[in-house]
Amino acid sequence: MTFCLLCGSSLYFVKGDPAKGKRERYRCHGNKSKGIQACPKQRFWAQDLYPWLESTLLGEIGHLERMESKTTIDDRRAAKLAVIDGKMNQLLKELQQDELSAVAYASQVASLAQDREKVTGLLQGWVTAGFMQPGLRLGS
After folding, report:
1. Strand order in the sheet with 11-14
2. What span, in angstroms and rounded, lies between the C-alpha atoms of 77 and 139?
3. C-alpha separations of 103 from 16, 78, 92, 109 in Å
């Protein structure tokens, strides 16, 4: 957290708007509960402040081991549904081109519809989250 040099209150992030020529910045917000007004014209450009914040933070915690967060989603259900839908589309094309009889089409589509119903009833993909050292892959 960063603080105003004049009043000691927290600095708050203000989003920029490049279309209006406004840059991202931090400004004094004051402290209404203590009756401290925001300091006028007390702003710091975010792009100028970030290198200083990074070096200060690394100076404080740079000796600690760094870990990266990695989240993976295993959704085999979506792949199974895509295969079933592809087969159904292929059967429809074969029926329209008279390469498949209506009886064979109905039988195969009914079977695929049952498979599709089973797959959609399954739980959605599993989410795995963990921490690892930078540059390593999960499972290594």
Report:
1. 11-14, 25-28, 43-45
2. 22
3. 64, 29, 12, 10
The residue type found at 16 is G
For residues 111 and 47, the answer to whether their CB atoms sit within 8 Å is no
What are the tens digits of pLDDT across the range 65-78?
777 767 666 677 78
4 three-class SS: coil
Write out pLDDT tens, residues 6-49.
Answer: 888 888 899 998 899 899 999 988 888 888 888 888 888 999 98
Residue 56 CA: distances (Å) to CA of 2, 21, 61, 128: 11, 29, 9, 33
The two structure tokens encoding residue 63: 């000796």
Task: Check: pTM over 0.70? Answer yes or no.
Answer: no
Quick check: 122 and 77 in contact, CB under 8 A? yes
